[in-house]
Amino acid sequence: MKHKQQLFTLIELLVVIAIIAILAAMLLPALNQAREKAKGATCIGNLKSLGQYQAFYLGDNHDVITYQDPSSIHTWGTILKGSSFIADGTAGQLKAPKGDEAPYFCPSIKMRNMNGQFGIYGAAVPAISSSNTTNTLPYSMFVNNDGWFSIAWSKCKAPSLAPVYGCSAFNNGGDLQSTYLMKGRSTDTTYGWTNIHSGRGNLLLGDGHTGAFSPGGFGDVVRQANNDSSLATKYFDHNLLIARNTN
Question: Phi, psi at residue 243, to the nearest 5°?
Fold first, then answer.
């Protein structure tokens, strides 16, 4: 006796598809959150590597920190990468977040350009006026107009309070992109440290330790670095693509 083969009706297929779509929609936020958490952990690892690179650099360069040369396309990253302890020993441009260049890039922020040299982590800008070299710094969160100076790291009284590198971005025509400098004072409105990792952003501090900071925590770091508890501070909101007060 032959049995009639039962087939799914169109309605049953649509119901199954709908259930799968609902389950996928429920799981997607969790998957995105897990992916971003992994990127945040990678970012922390990158910054720890940069801290080690910086320590080697200081040892090879009379305890003088990396700086930005305004007359050159080389950023702090290309100067740091050009040190002899890096495998290739060249001072070429950083081009992509892969291989031995990966630690220079935040994995959650789009590169500024295809060359990549300006799309690396943001460096806290060294203070320039002589009065600032005796404070908590050498790393400050602003630029003066009279030039760029290299400052001996030994002048930093409290390295644990001095920001070195961190997640930094700017708004490039509605697109969040990374930038090689990091600011945080109230006068900075075009770019700066950003809360890219689930509302937090990562920082490497002068004593080599790293952390994920809230905007308020970042503001505290900037005030401590500038030795000014009343200093107004800003961060770059990665959702709104604007600079906002940290508190």
Answer: -80, 135
pLDDT at 195: 94
**Beta-bridge mates of residue 204:** 165, 210
Residue keyed to tokens 């990468």? 81
What parts of the chain have a pLDDT lower than 50?
A: 84-91, 127-148
For residue 218, how many other CB atoms are within 10 A of its CB?
A: 28
Q: Enter the DSSP assignment of 212.
A: E
Comparing CA positions, the residue from 185, 204, 174, 29 lying closest to residue 106 is 204
Local structure of 245: helix, strand or coil: strand
Q: Rounded to an integer, what distance in angstroms lies between the CA atom of residue 139 and that of residue 213? A: 18
Q: Are 120 and 210 in contact (CB under 8 A)?
A: no
φ/ψ region of 218 (left if φ > 0, alpha if ψ in -120 to 50, else beta) reads alpha
- The burial of 180, by beta-carbon neighbours within 10 Å (0-12 exposed, 13-18 middle, 19 or more buried), is given as buried
Q: Which pairing describes strands 168-171 and 191-193: parallel, antiparallel, or unpaired?
A: antiparallel
Q: What per-residue confidence (pLDDT) applies to 146?
A: 42
| Tokens standing for residue 185 | 């004072």
Q: Environment class of residue 10 by beta-carbon count within 10 Å: exposed (0-12), middle (13-18) or buried (19+)?
A: exposed
Per the CB < 8 A criterion, the answer to whether 105 and 43 are in contact is no
Q: What is the pTM of this model?
A: 0.77
- Say how many residues make up the chain: 247
Residue 41 exposure: Cα atoms within 13 Å on the Cβ side: 6
Distance of alpha carbon 247 from alpha carbon 244, whole angstroms: 9
DSSP lists the bridge partners of residue 205 as: 163
